[in-house]
Amino acid sequence: MNVPRLLWVGWRFYVKNLTLSSFYILTSVLQPIIFASVAYFMFEAGAREGTLLYVALGAGMMGIWSSTLFGSGGAIQWQRWQGVLEYSIAVPPPLLLVIVPLTIATASIGLYSLTATLFWGWLFFDVPLDVAHPIAFLVALPAAVLGLGLLGLVLASTFVLYRNANALSNLLEFPVWLVTGLLVSLSLLPGWVGPLSWVLAPTWGINALREAAIAGNPWPEIGMCLLLSAVYLVIGHFALRHFERLARERATLAIA
Amino acid sequence: MTAARIFAVGGLMSYRALFYWLTPMIYIPSLVVAPIFQILLMAYIGRSAGLASDEFFLVGNAIQYAAVPCLFAMMHLVGGEKFQNTLGAILVSPAPRLPLFFGRAVPVVLNGAFVAAFSLLVGSLILGVEIPGGSIPPLALVILVAAFSCTGLGLINAALALRIRESAVLSNVLFGFLLIFTGANVPLSDLPDWMQTISQWIPFTHAIEAARELVDGASASSVLDLVGRELALGAAYLAAGYLLLRFFENQGRRHATLERS
Questions:
Q1: Which residues, including other chains, have CB under 8 Å from residue B162's CB and lie 6 or more apart?
Q2: Would you call A189 and B180 a contact, using CB atoms and an 8 Å cutoff?
Q3: Nearest CA in chain A to B191
Q4: DSSP for A136-179?
Q5: Who's near B131: CB < 8 A, 6+ residues apart?
Q6: For position B71, what pLDDT does the model report?
Q7: Which residues of B touch A197 (CB under 8 A)?
Q8: What count of CB pairs under 8 Å joins A to B?
Q9: Angle B39-B43-B46 (CA atoms, 0-180°, nearest 5)?
Q10: How far apart are CA A75 and CA A9, in angstroms?
Q11: Hey, is the C-beta of B5 within 8 angstroms of any chain A C-beta?
């Protein structure tokens, strides 16, 4: 079994598959643009200085999170509805290697959001698109996507135990935008939010992108994205095994 | 009498039939908890930007979030029938359309008002915003009028669902449009002139302004003109939505496209 090839082909397939959903793509592009516009107006009208590039990147990351949350949160359920879950489990490669490309693909689709908010900001709000460290930015971007994609694996393998995964996704969209500091300075939030934000990849992903874009040192944040990715992979591996065992024992693989 | 039955009993039955899936496990995360986090998110962005008080964002977002139940539920009144293959049966029935569609809108208005009122209450407790006791009854009326007004826009959304496939995307776009244009998060005076002009003709703008004045301690009589304008806008949207529904229904019959989109 050629693992890199399996991951690559799976990722390409799922990106193409998701791109065919006009609902998914339109939502990925329009929703971040709406929130970015609100934030641009708020920071322009506000008394406190804030760079609009900071806002554009944050709003783009909001889109990546939403795309991951809704795409990965319902990934296994979606496979079940399409009738391919049994095949995904029956094929020789482990289920993990089938699901990981899917969850990373959902995060990758979020790049539409980032592109859209940056372009929208540049076109209508004069957001400067000068990136201080372009190479670091190009490294930070896939690191952030990987971090969110593997967090998606944890969501996919745990949400499946909850019948209404979509409602859970609705529940988690705003709170994670808030506690990961995508548009809000973390120093304004209560102290107990800190540890919560540290274990969430979007916190480190957005910090890495901002440090790379606005003259800082993004490498520690990129490192944290990779470290968290490894942790999510381990959690996702055990959670998926648990799900697979339960589904086989109870014969509920095809039952929604 | 038949029209009254279709309006009251039919409206309630349709709502229950179309939203059988709206169990507490879905309702609470989506319509009880999510609006509170929208309020908190916007209040904290406001603090980051140094734009306005928590009260400003609390009132604006609590009322604006009524758009989710109002827009999506109205859209589902047509989309849900299409999904369940019952739209044809509804539209070939001789039932008068006015009570048929307006009766379905009543539970939507009440639900929208509940979502806004509940998030306003919980949000005020979390953010420590004090609402004067005397303002609560007129505030409840303002919220009800706001939900009515947005349900009018929702009826237009429902009519468009007869023609377009991605009606959920349209609902999301309308929700975002209201988030930007109604002054829920940005003072109207800070928006460009053309946006300020549009804001005067869409749901929520006047209701949000009235609610903010009430929370600041203004008397009910001082916001009557704002409430009146919101009510009139709601009625105009409802009428436009009804006409659009009839138009698309006729088009659908003529071109046999009722269940194609």
A1: B78, B245, B248, B249, B252, B258, B261
A2: no
A3: A41
A4: HHHHHHHHHHHHHHHHHHHHHHHHTTSTTHHHHHHHHHHHHHHH
A5: B120, B124, B139, B215
A6: 94
A7: none
A8: 107
A9: 145
A10: 17
A11: no
Instruction: Measure the CA dihedral A171/A175/A180/A182, to 10°.
Output: 100
Please give the model's pTM, rounded to 2 decimal places: 0.91
Which of A20, A176, A184 to mutate to probe the B interface, most B CBs <10 Å?
A184
pLDDT for B131-166, tens place per residue? 999 999 999 999 999 999 999 999 999 999 888 877
Give the type of residue at B213: E
Of B25, B177, B186, the CB nearest to A41: B186
Nearest to B153 by CA among B206, B196, B109: B109
A73: enclosing H helix or E strand: helix A52-73
Find, among A90, A100, A102, A104, the residue nearest to A244 by Cα: A90
Min mean pLDDT across A33-47, B119-133, B162-176 is at B162-176
Which residue on chain B is closest to A183 by alpha carbon?
B45
Name residue, tokens 């589904």: A247
Q: Which residues contact A61 (CB under 8 A, 6 or more apart)?
A: A110, A114, A144, A180, A182, A202, A205, A206, A209
Report how far residue B105's alpha carbon sits from residue A155's, in angstroms, rounded to the nearest whole number.
36
> Cβ(B123)–Cβ(B137) under 8 Å?
no
Q: Is B180 on the interface with A (CB under 8 A)?
A: yes
Could you tell me which chain A residue has the CA closest to the CA of B186? A42
Whether B228 and chain A come into contact, CB under 8 Å, resolves to: no
The residue behind tokens 């749901």 is B203
Which residue is closest to A27 within chain B, CA to CA? B169
Query: What's the rounded Cα separation, in Å, for the pair B242 and B236?
Result: 10
Give the rounded percent of residues in chain A with a pLDDT score beyond 90. Answer: 59
DSSP string, B109-164: HHHHHHHHHHHHHHHHHHHT----GGGHHHHHHHHHHHHHHHHHHHHHHHHHTTT-
Q: What is the DSSP string of B202-250?
A: STTHHHHHHHHHHHTT--GGGGHHHHHHHHHHHHHHHHHHHHHHHHHHH
Q: Which residue from A30, A42, A170 is facing B173, i.e. has the nearest CB? A: A30
Q: How far is CA A225 from CA A63, A155, A228, in A?
A: 18, 17, 5
Nearest-angstrom CA–CA distance, B70 and B63: 11
- Average of per-residue pLDDT across A58-77: 89
Please report the pLDDT score of residue B259 as a whole number.
67
| Structural contact between residues B205 and B199, judged by C-beta atoms closer than 8 angstroms | yes
Nearest to B190 among A45, A166, A188 (CB): A45
Cβ <8 Å between B180 and A38: yes
Q: How many CB atoms lie under 10 A from the CB of residue B20?
A: 9
